[in-house]
Design a protein that fits this description.
The complex is a heterodimer of chains A (about 300) and B (about 280). Chain A is mainly α. Chain A has helices at about 15-20, 20-40, 40-60, 60-85, 105-130, 135-145, 150-180, 190-210, 230-255, 270-295, and strands spanning about 95-100, 100-105. Chain A contains 10 helices and 2 strands. A two-stranded antiparallel sheet of chain A has the order 1-2. In chain B, strand 4 (about 60-65) and strand 5 (about 70) form a beta hairpin. Chains A and B meet through helix 7 and helix 8 of A and helix 3 of B.
Amino acid sequence: MRGAVIPITMVPGDSPLHKIAPLPKLAWSFGVLIIAFMTRNPAILGTIILAGLLLTTIAQIWKPMLRVMIVLFPVFVISIFLQSIAPAFPKPWNPIVGFGPFTIYQEGIYSGITMFGRAFGMTLFAMVTIMTTHPSDLFASLEKIGMPYVLNFILTVTLQLIPILQREFGTVLSAQKSRGMKGTGFGAVLPSMVPVFVGAIERVQQLSISLESRAFGSTGNKTSYRNVVMRPSDYIILVSGLLATFATGYWILVDKSLDWSRSMTFSPTLSISLVVSAGLIFTSFVTIAIFKIIKT
Amino acid sequence: MSEALIVCENLTHIYDGEVVAVQDINLTIQKGELIGVIGQNGSGKTTLVKHFNGLLKPTKGKVFVNGNDTAGMRIQELAKSVGYVFQNPNHQLFAKTVREELEFGPTNLGVPEDEVKERVNKAFKFFNLEKYRESHPYRISFPLRKLVGMASIYTMRPDVFILDEPTTGQDHITTRIVYQLIERLRNEGATVICVAHDMILLAEVVERMIVMRDSQIIADTDPRTVFSDKDLMASTHLTPPQITELSYRMRDNKQIKNLALSINGLLEETSKNFNLKRSK
């Protein structure tokens, strides 16, 4: 189970990115999210990806980032494969090559590449934010901008429960394997999930009792153990993030020449190799994952 | 003639390439032995026993069960010969009735139906759980649930039973029942390995004690020798049973000759002494 846990948590460090307050980082991540959905321009999406990789380098989080991307990258890549055959794009579609019932379209490749770029770029920024921000700081900041305490608390507790449940699932799985259970297929679901769910419900019941006995839900002002201070530099980063989002968004809306969907053409060789490698990456990922599950 | 059931050769386990949990362990466990493994939390006891049924594979060294190297074997294969009873029974109970829970293990091993039935019936008698045959496992009390956990391994008829903290969370009566069960298991020819903090269990039931500290075995001998070694006990931060503490003092006061590990043992010692005095 140990190896299967994806480290979507803070990676302790001392980089400039770790020192920035949570809000500016959140603003940039949301900005990127908005821009990525506003445009299909490969150059803008490419710039976002490059910036994301640069930030990963600055934050010195390549190792955990790779562990996350090993799982997510094949999922993103499959959009190139699927889109090339069935583009999510207004017709007419220009065919490039065809194999029997399958035809690869210009618009499909374009659409696939941009979808891949969107997902990859957004995830990079979101991961950099998550990996360089202490969760408590993040929630303390959210509370400052008006997020209700209870909602905030629900989120924090849920996030804390995930690793606990992952560990619990590991223990249950070893207990059942010790009883000779075959670790695959539908037959494995019931014996492993029942104890995990029963345990989770019991744990939550106990948690709620212990919370109430410690005055959770009392009225009045609450103090926070971690105090997040916004420095002048944080304000500058925050404002520049908002400005950059607005400016780029405005540019995308106004400049129609940014739509390259009709002008960009892909040669048959390039398209085939793109589609085939996307398919290969995804299938090999699925095969490796299945083998790993069978082996354990 | 005893035969080696589990053999560890220079067993080392390192978690995540950093944390050394057990280091350079050499150990042989014979058929029919009743063994206690003790040590502080984090001393490596659980890591060590998890190698016996393949839940963990050695980082370095080898572990043999019945002469087979565990490195190439799956837990499901090893489950035939090594049964592991987890500390918390809630981690394994999922069926609607206790009976189905007991059937799960042997059916996984491919035991024929009529034999499964026979084994389950025997387990109900052995663990005295007949009343709860059709009860929901989560509806019975925790101590009984723990017995169900043990019974569900018993039906798999392994050569070795590994019991992780079998008496934790048990009341006085079920603790006594567990002691008796362990002895009966051994009388049926099984090898029993208890990872435990329960010093009375170790003093009264177990015959060989493996003491662990800082990922290594620091003593491997009978309970009497372990409990009489005050420095050894202190170094593991474990205290012997109160009756043994009392007998330390009585021995120091020359009231008895030998250390006693149980109430009966101390009674015997004191009466010996009494007879000795009377005969003078």
